[in-house]
Structures are given as structure tokens and as C-alpha cells.
Amino acid sequence: MFLWIAEQLGFPGVLNLIRYITFRAGAATATALFIGLLIGPKFIGWLRVRQGRGQPIRADGPQTHLSKRGTPTMGGLMILTSVSIAMILWMDFKNPYLWACLFVTVGFGLIGFLDDYDKVTKKSHKGVPGKTRLVAEFLVAGVGTWAIIQGTGTDLYLPFVQGPVADIGPVAYILFGSFVIVAFGNAVNLTDGLDGLATMPVIIASLAFLLITYLVGNAVFAGYLGVPHVLGVGDLTVLCSAIIGAGLAFLWFNAPPAAVFMGDTGSLALGGALGVIAVAARHEFVLAIIGGLFVIEALSVIVQVFFYKRTGRRIFKMAPIHHHFEQIGWSEPTVVIRFWIISFVLALAGLSTLKLR
């Protein structure tokens, strides 16, 4: 909105700053952070009144988690509210990539909200049937990917390789992009099992993609580094910045002991946002490195289920893998902080691919 207003006025005086992506990105971070901190206390109080007993806690989970009963969920609504307002204020309304990414983010948030609502009202941890949720996620991701490839094309890029490796066509790319978005949305959802565990790695990944989207959107930097140049993707730095600000505000209330859980509303939305940003920036495979922690969490569940169904034995004491470390004696803060460190190292590894092409 501010960009449009400044544009109508001809960018006079200090308003000239608004034309710069870096300024709007910083402003989006500050706006989302301020809004999140401002609405947090009353929002959490409202959730506590509306939900009563809060998010259902699984009886077969770690026994230390039983003390978290009564903690409200759907805190992801705080994140979505902060991000949405910050984007309305600072985004470029003419940028199609921003609208596609916002569509996926809000769409996944809505799916997560319905799942959380089902859990709270039925007082069960099961929620919406998995197949129904996956179909809805693929539909949203498919529309978002289709909108993105109208401007980016369907070339596939790999880390360490300069230039596209193949043009896979629109149908294959929509399937591929949808898989990336859905897989990452659910990977973040699986990681969100401890206070603050998913939030900080999402912030770290967003910081990494803030840099990537800026470089990809700049013809000079993209040419120097040998990464694909996509005109207009640089504005996604504003979205990455808004996620960082909203994530920091949420972490203020989610720090142990958590006053609120983000729930599927937040984890699906944030994971979907990272996935669709990676698709728009043509760095889908780099996302698997930067967000490697989420990949590990998801793989731990897949491996656990696969071996248990075929052998009746478990590879891990409990999955996702963060629960395994709890079961072998690590305290919750120890698991969370060590996983944050792993996330930071993987983000640096992913960023290193920018120069190794």
C-alpha cells in the first residue's frame, strides 16, 4: 500500500526510500514484529477462553509433555495476521510472485486451521483425515505453482550446476513444485513438537532465502554467481522479512514454557511459504539443504513407519526424531537449542551452493 501511495505521489523526498526493496524488507520485519508483540497477549487470552482445555496432548507421547495440557493452540493465526498486515503495507501489488506465495501461505494456514479446529472441538489429536488434507494441500500448491511458472518457465536447476539441466514442461513442473511445497509444509508440521523447535529454524531458513531471492532478482548478482535470474522475485525478500518478524514475535510467546502453540495453522503455513518461495526462486533442491532439519524430521517418521509395518520393530525410540532424543535423556531445551545449531549450519551449507556453480 505504501509503495502504491508513494508511486502515485511520484516518490517525493523521503518517500523515495520506499521504492527500494531493502527498505521495504526491513520495514516489513519491523511491522510484523511490532504487530505480533502487540496482539500476542490479548490473542492468547482469547484463544485460552475459546479453547478451554487447549490442544489435546497425546497420551502415548513423552510423559513430560503431559504438563503442557491446557496450552492453547492455533497461535499460527498470530503469525498469519502479522505477515498479512505487513505485506499489505509494504508489498508491490503488481508483483505476481508475491500474490502466488501469499495464496499458498494463507491457503495452507486455512487447511491447518481446520485441522486444529477439528482437534480442539473433538478433543482429539487426530484432526482432519490425512488424505483429505493432502488433496487440499496439493490443490492449493498446484494453483500456486501454476501461477509462478507463467513468469519463470519450467526449467529445472540443480545446485553445483550452472544453468538449467532440463525443461520438464508445465505439467511435470506443476507436479514437482506442488510436491516440494506440500512436502515442506508437512515437514515443518512434523518438526513442531517442542517449544520453539520449528520457529527458529523457519526464521533461519527465511533469512537464507531472503538473501537468495534478492540475488536471484538482481540481474548483476545472478549473472556473477551463475544462478537463475527471475525478474520480480527480488520482492519476495519482503515476504521473507515479514516471516522473520512474525516468527520472532511468536517465539517471544512460544519460548519454554510456551504460552501458546502455533499448531498446524502456523506450521503448515510457514512450511508452505518456504516451499513456494523456493519454487519461485528456482532453488527447490537448495531448500532441502537449508531446511535440512525439517527433511531429517520427516524422514525419521517415514523410516519409522516403514520398518515398523514390515518388521514390527522401531528404528527410533519415538518419531519424529526430536522425541527420540527426549527418550534417551536429553531435556527439551537441550534438544531445541542443538537442533537450532544444526539448522544454522545447514543454512550456511545451502548458501554455499550459490558460489559453487
What this model shows, in words?
With 357 residues, the protein is an all-alpha fold. The protein has one domain (28-352). The chain has helices at residues 2-9, 21-51, 76-90, 96-122, 130-152, 169-191, 199-216, 219-225, 236-254, 263-280, 284-290, 292-311, 321-327, 332-352; strands at 155-156, 166-167. α4 packs antiparallel against α5, α5 packs parallel to α10 and α6 (169-191) crosses α12 (292-311). The mean pLDDT is 92.
Q: Indicate the proportion of strand residues.
A: under 5%
Q: Bin the helical content.
A: 55-70%
Order of helices and strands: HHHHHEEHHHHHHHHH
Number of domains: 1
Shape: globular
Could you give the count of β-strands?
2
The DSSP helix count reads 14
State the strand order across the main sheet.
1-2
Structural class: mainly alpha
Tell me about the biggest sheet?
2 strands, antiparallel
Please report the distance between the alpha carbons of the first and last residues. 38 Å
Low-confidence stretches: none
* Radius of gyration from the alpha-carbon trace, in angstroms: 20 Å
Quote the average pLDDT: 92
Task: Provide the descriptors you would attach to this structure in a database record.
357 residues; mainly alpha; two-stranded antiparallel sheet; single chain; 14 helices
